[in-house]
Fold each of these.
Amino acid sequence: MKRHLVAHVSMLIRLDKYIHFCRQAECPTAGAGKGLGVILNTEKQESGGRTEISALFDAGTFVELGAYVRRKGDRETYDAVLCGYGAVEGKLTFAFAQDCDRLGGAFDETGAEKIEKLYQQAIRSGAPVVGIFNSAGAVVFDGAPALSAYGRLMKCVSDASGVVPQIALISGVCAGMAAVAASLFDVSVAVKGDSELYINPPSIVGKETGGVAYAAAGGLVSLVAEDAGAARAAVRSLIDLLPLNNRDTADVDATDDPGRPVTVTGLAGGELAAALADGGRVVSLYADYGKELFTGLCRMGGRTVGVVASDPTVSEGRLSTAGAKKAARLVSFCDSFSLPVVTLVDSVGVEDGADPALAPALGRLATAYLASTTAKVTCVTGKAYGAAFTLLGSRALGADLALALPEAVISVLPPESAVAFVWNDKVSTDTPRETVEAQWRELYATPRAAAESGDIDDVIAPEELRARLCAALYMLAGKADGTPDRKHGTMPL
């Protein structure tokens, strides 16, 4: 597959050079002879949007589509949406960009039509789509057609969801219905200091609501980059990690020893994920939303995986409404593209309080694990009390393999609460509470006890965690659900 794409990219480069040659030479095959050659050289001016979309692709591979489309009824003004395709990290990728240098990036039905054609080709080709958002809004004078244009954009994104990866790059203002459309993408990347993402303008609901920090804390963006270059690099990293489409498989690029021993003592959340990942490289998603859980993408043993990891330094890893939602979203996304999910558990349960949204959010998390058919591997690295053990990728919710480290504590209640609830009569002057709690942990809360019941498959040494995870991912690489297709069994002699 990769060799095929490299060959395709080479073709794109040759095509781009051929077009450039035709324009410079005023070649008749460019369209209509010398006259068109002059138009090509004078009218396709560089702009912020063109520079931005070109910089996303590998050098020399960007090919624009619909380059000379103008607004309907206007022979002078080019449409504010740029569309094209090329190679990103050697992978065929399609992209559109709202050009703020053309009518402020104002969106209209012509732009929607260009994006529709782009999506049609992307789905036929089975390649990812990147949307670059930077627009002042709709063309107000267009009325209902401008409003319908946003609906047509949303339909494109919705129809492609789960078919090809979609990444939104918020490079400037993304407001109103454009923000709704961007939220439908699989991953959204914002730029600190440059991006604005909101439904209602800050002038109405408060100036702090349009900023990147507010959007990130509310889960409106997946990743915040320091500058425009870092944002493009993040998009390119995501394209590199992800498969081309839902029938493709992510590239297996084993650049790190799968059996490499790791030191995981004292690590949790993103730090633990980085220690286990190939080369220590992870892409964190929704870092400022539901902070008790780390969610992100990385490679383990060359295979791209989604990681859900508890962070006990935040509220002892207690599951919140936000954390449950973002974990469910990652599991669902990974399942759409057959990416394995690795879950690392160190949580004392669910957050305290009376948030009515918590129960449905936890139900959403359970549903995501139950409904997913992709490979799922879980390891209890610390505490796993009550609902945290069940909801975070347990065997009962469909994990293919469940492991635990020797120091893990798996219990219906925290040992302190369990003793107070059922063993309080055992506490005395001769047998202090700490001794009784230790007895409870030894009898009912060890990973060995969970393994004896079949809820944990194995208890492993901490330094073997990466090796065991990579081995499990290799074993599950060909996982198929249901009864395998066959004509018949082999007849005995």
Amino acid sequence: MNLVVLQNWLDNASFAVLFLTMLVYWVGAAFPNLPAFAAMGTAGMAIANLCIATLLGARWIEAGYFPLSNLYESLFFLTWGITAVHLIAENSSRSRLVGVVTAPVAMGITAFATLTLPSQMQVAEPLVPALKSNWLMMHVSVMMLSYAALMVGSLLAIAFLIVTRGQNIQLQGSSVGTGGYRSNGYKLHKAGELVTEPQVAAAENNGFVRYESNSNGNGKTAVLDLVTAPQSETVTDAESLSPQRLSLAETLDNISYRIIGLGFPLLTIGIIAGAVWANEAWGSYWSWDPKETWALITWLVFAAYLHARITRGWQGRRPAILAASGLIVVWVCYLGVNLLGKGLHSYGWFL
């Protein structure tokens, strides 16, 4: 089997595996009493990641350069990054909901690259002179990995908004180091922390107190202490959320924060590396090219998110909305500017 045939087989196999994996995650979310689906989903993402890595490796051998020179190659590299970050996020959160939101995106990108792009755009061609540089691997690969991490973090923020139904609840978990969810009538304490409220025996149907154990995404047990608010207090919408939703919301908020915290330094390194490469190629570190401008906008959006989380202490809905808007900004930076107009980064219709 020659390398071209192998690549054609692998890109179709990647699409098929991701499509089936998406269905597995959706069925597993609809029927949570089937734990086997969680393992099947993880295995599917791992197989897809391996197929794409093999495809890119074959492409590298065939063309003789790192496979990031056109849209087809970059889409598969982006999908590889998303599946890799997914596996990290899922292992950290122990939640199958991660795959519910990441698998369809990975499948959609693969479908676009495999089924929509014309065949001439899928063929490896010799590099243009400006791309014959070691910076192609150093700059573009880091930028694509940052896009993948930021996309996954933003998708998890969207999942958080869905789980909480967009309610303005305050989460104080390990992402801000204070340890505890608080709302009118609800408190989430990590195991081992001192609980000062009087502990009433297990829940009775009159709604006094109930204790449940859930995973908080850090390998530790969290105890969800539901304390009924006094009758004189106003009952908030947060009380309509089940304990499982509240625990899941904190897990999603925490892992989204951590994944974005991984993608932001990669984006920073990629922008700096791109500036150095631009100075070597064009004699200027910054030219306000559309791609450069939107890379800066992307950096500012996620810098604002991290600043709000770390310095201002924002939690819950407000930073999640900011992170969710970052998903649109990343897509505009990655692909939109090439559709809207030409610039210095228009080699291969994506760079």
